[in-house]
């Protein structure tokens, strides 16, 4: 009768989570290696009493931003299709909805370097990967001017040099727009390295104005005017790179950071960077920088009523057979 | 001829540093136990080729805020008196001033959970402990509303409950001024628990307004108006207690935090807290909360020309024999 006769009825869950990537070989499941996806899927199978190789209930996560080995996520998003009867098994003796029960059980079972923020039924048309409008990554560096906080050693890269943020921002500005980032990324088979960067900038997080006074920056003096006492931030003094794009190709953020840093320490000049942007060619001088400074911080989705059309549009772009290399996007965004 | 004939000429160094307190049994040197002071003094003896028990060159650090086991410091201050000839040994083959050389060598030799921000010759009259005007501590909590970041597990306390920040702020407000904190602190022998709290408040760090819009808070909209893209902070969503006092008695901050949290989760009411403030008496219900959420964030000193008079005044207050218990301060501030 209907087109969906052969499909099992499934519920799509949206899972928001965070992880310290330091002890993971990236997101994607790989045999006999510790990955974020692997840990969560293993926990799901245990909680829901599903065999690991059950073909009817694969419990496979689809993620918004595939992160590499050692890269962190503070706000990652994935989805999971699950049959209602299997989901219901999460409830057990709890007096809460099944999604809440699953959230609590996952939070308890998962190792300390993964935190589940929340689990809910996804709105109609939601696809963690294809509905996403844009991803935001932040790369944190302590340079010679920064005061090092040992508590952040796992998520900050130390560079024993002075960074010229103005020069780095001139390089970053050249990445904005639709470009082929072939100098800074490795294409997947059949994919491209064309991406649209929406924002990209370097900033030094203001040093903590603990006792507000007239000499401090705008934000601080606003707080002072309101009589508030500024709560110091853990990141004060760090150099942070924020980049927002529709999607990222493999190694793209870390390669751009590496190139900007080379400009920032004076090893390369802006023309070198502009040349790499103009002629997309992968080679040694534009390889990726160390992973520990990088964090996926945000994935933006459209309003609920636009989710399905967004996913259809992206899916179409990425599966069009006739557009050739230049029109398609990478088949696995990050 | 002069009063100082018998004193060896010494240089006083000011050392600014940070540490992750998680793997230390506090600041103060203790035999056969890993402490921050112990690690640094051991490193100093090695770098400067001084025997550990050399009576002429003790290399003893005097600290602004003695931290307990598991408590962190992002901006600790201490001083060290050292003879010029010994200090000069730090230079070796380096072409830099002795203080810079010592700074570099310490940074390299110290373990990863201690970071030396800088070392310099202290201004005349400077005393890390007695010149200090005030100390600032911050306690960080993730409650049920917070999004947990696994990277911060070592410096945030998780509380699986909802916190009523208004109630906690009413309690915090009652601590401001000169009070006997005997319900919240353990006096040292011969000392008191009277301290002057200058500021004390709870706040939830605003959630990161990654994409600035009209609906966000003042700070965010300021940034939006200037066209900047907000760099997210690691602490967004956490509940932070900031407290500033002339000095702190033993266990005082963590005991106040514990009492505020009991009010915040509704286990105790404000009257209970006010009663503890009115009748200073140490007992079980006002013991200290876990240490990992606590960080010494700042030590304030007067302008250079007021350092000596401040130190003299504080030293006098703390050594006056006739004032009795109520007039003296604790002999070891934190």
From TrEMBL, chains A, B:
> Is Cell cycle included in the keywords of this UniProt record?
no
Q: Enumerate the Gene Ontology biological process terms.
A: tRNA pseudouridine synthesis
Residues recorded as binding substrate, renumbered to this chain, are 137
Q: State the top-level EC class.
A: isomerase
- Domain named Pseudouridine synthase I TruA alpha/beta is located at 171-302
This one is known as: tRNA pseudouridine synthase A
Fill in the subunit field for this protein: Homodimer.
**Alphabetically ordered keywords of this record:** Isomerase, tRNA processing
Q: What is its EC number?
A: 5.4.99.12
CDD domains for this protein: PseudoU_synth_EcTruA
Q: Where is the active site?
A: 68 (nucleophile)
Q: Supply the SUPFAM superfamilies for this chain.
A: Pseudouridine synthase
Q: Name one GO molecular function term.
A: tRNA pseudouridine(38-40) synthase activity
Q: Note whether DNA repair occurs among the keywords.
A: no
The record ties this protein, via InterPro entries, to: PsdUridine_synth_cat_dom_sf, PsdUridine_synth_TruA, PsdUridine_synth_TruA_a/b_dom, PsdUridine_synth_TruA_C, TruA/RsuA/RluB/E/F_N
Family assignment from sequence similarity: Belongs to the tRNA pseudouridine synthase TruA family.
Recorded catalytic reaction(s): these are: uridine(38/39/40) in tRNA = pseudouridine(38/39/40) in tRNA
Protein function = Formation of pseudouridine at positions 38, 39 and 40 in the anticodon stem and loop of transfer RNAs.
């Amino acid at each position: 009768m209907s087109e969906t006769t052969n499909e099992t009825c499934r519920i799509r869950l949206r899972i928001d989570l965070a992880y310290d990537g330091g002890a993971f070989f990236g997101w994607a499941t790989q045999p006999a290696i510790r990955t974020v996806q692997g840990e969560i899927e293993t926990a799901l199978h245990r909680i829901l009493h599903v065999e690991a190789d059950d073909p009817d209930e694969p419990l496979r996560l689809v993620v918004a931003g595939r992160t590499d080995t050692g890269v962190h996520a503070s706000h990652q998003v994935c989805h999971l299709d699950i049959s209602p009867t299997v989901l219901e098994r999460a409830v057990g003796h709890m007096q809460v909805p099944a999604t809440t029960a699953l959230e609590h059980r996952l939070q308890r079972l998962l190792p300390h370097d993964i935190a589940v923020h929340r689990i809910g039924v996804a709105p109609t048309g939601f696809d963690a990967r294809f509905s996403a409008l844009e991803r935001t990554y932040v790369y944190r560096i302590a340079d010679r001017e920064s005061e090092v906080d040992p508590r952040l050693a796992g998520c900050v890269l130390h560079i024993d040099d002075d960074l010229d943020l103005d020069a780095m921002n001139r390089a970053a500005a050249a990445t904005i727009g639709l470009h082929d980032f072939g100098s800074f990324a490795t294409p997947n088979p059949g994919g491209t390295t064309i991406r649209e960067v929406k924002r990209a900038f370097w900033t030094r997080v203001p040093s903590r104005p603990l006792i507000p006074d007239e000499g401090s920056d705008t934000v601080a003096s606003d707080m002072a005017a309101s009589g508030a006492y500024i709560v110091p931030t853990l990141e004060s003094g760090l150099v942070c790179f924020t980049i927002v794009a529709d999607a990222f190709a493999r190694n793209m953020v870390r390669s751009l950071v590496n190139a900007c840093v080379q400009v920032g320490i004076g090893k390369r000049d802006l023309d070198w960077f502009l040349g790499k942007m103009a002629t997309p060619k992968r080679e040694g001088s534009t390889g990726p920088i160390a992973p520990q400074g990088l964090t996926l911080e945000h994935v933006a989705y459209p309003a609920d009523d636009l989710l399905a059309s967004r996913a259809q549009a992206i899916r179409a772009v990425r599966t069009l057979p006739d557009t050739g290399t230049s029109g398609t996007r990478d088949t696995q965004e990050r």
